[in-house]
Write a structure and sequence with these properties.
Blueprint lengths: L1 H23 L9 H21 L5 H5 L2 E5 L7 H14 L7 H4 L6 H6 L1 E5 L13
Antiparallel strand pairs: 1-2
Amino acid sequence: MSLVYEGLLLLALFMIADLALLLAVPVARDPAFRPLVQLYLLAVSGGYFVWLWTHGGQTLAMKTWRLRLVAADGGPVPLRQAAVRFAVVVLTFMLPAFLWALVDRERQFLHDRLAGTRIINDEGGGKTAENQDG
């Protein structure tokens, strides 16, 4: 369900980014610019995911479903790992890469396995023992 919610949020992000582009560069409506517009939207989505994964490990959908992306050692995801994860997601999106989790011994997605990341349950809402009281 988190993936469906993520898709809806991404659609809204695309609409806002596309509107901003069309207001700034009206010629972007020309069909000849379509590949550039698609690359722009891919870059916007990459920025969205990589930024949030490296700054707290959660997108809005992940927060809602209490999921967190962490490095394989359980620590925060560095920029390089987040970028690799995003690139692998993009490259394997049309493949049955999500089915990998059904056969993976730790139930990880292919992109998490290749990027050295994993998704964990975040039942504490990101709170540590030190900041739960206050």
